[in-house]
Amino acid sequence: MDESFGLLLESMPEAVVVVNREGEITYCNSKARRILGKDVVSLKVWEIEGLESGEKMRDFIKSLASGRYTKKREVFEFTAGRKIFYLSIYATELLDGSGFILTFRDITPIVESSRRIEELNDVLRLINKLLRHDILNKVTIARANIEILSDEIKSERIPVALEALDEVVELIERARAFEQTLTSGELVEIRLGDVVKEVTEDFSVRGLKVRVEGDATVLADKAIYSVLTNLLENSLKHGKSTEVEIRVEKRGNFAVMVVRDDGKGLPEEVIDRIFEEGFTHGDSAGSGLGLYIVKKVIERYGGEVRACNDGGAVFEIKLKLAT
What we know:
One of its GO terms (molecular function) is ATP binding. By secondary structure, the protein is an alpha+beta fold.
């Protein structure tokens, strides 16, 4: 190795290891020796002591050497004594093509924080699930008893109490949908036609006539069901709609789903605020979470949602097509 090049690598703030195309280590700077515990020159990089997965490292080097790599960065687990730490390794090919510079970065605090956050999220999900289950049970019991009493006692307050209990159930369902929005995992291929068919069945029973045209397969997850549910609930409850048209069409690399109802439309004075968290308006105002959930879900998919009036309310959702 050229002396000036070696001095450059030694002066770098990161730990650096140089390997040839066969994975043999030809150089490591002092920072790398501190992290790896000793001079590892002449070893195969997957033979480094403490490396959790030598096979993973071997595959990484082979993919680099073959030119078929899909990424030039990997995270590896190392053990030094009783301590476990995580290194992000980024590969850069040498100009003469003889090998690769591997830059090591200790990301242990990041990995540990991420795992701790996930553990806390798991606990919160469990607590929320238990609370929802217990509260729904209590609400069901309360509603059943009030309905029984309504046969014996005639009071204008009974319908008010039943309506309040129904609103509690709705809030719990919105909380569940919002949790799905934040915690759903990898995006998969989903046919919008299947989503529309399943969701609209419930609304048809409630008297909402739904016309459907077009279909497309998009990248989404199970939270897409809550998106359409919220839009139709908005049309039925707030827009007082009797009919909804759902049209799906492809535009370039995207699918556009347009949900158009025949209701009273969106109030023009607040139309720019309807996707804000907690925003409510009018006598039929709900929790202020429904359209906020819609916006957050679609943004997580890398899509867009917008609303306008054209007779009734119109919602246009743009989603990435599955390739």
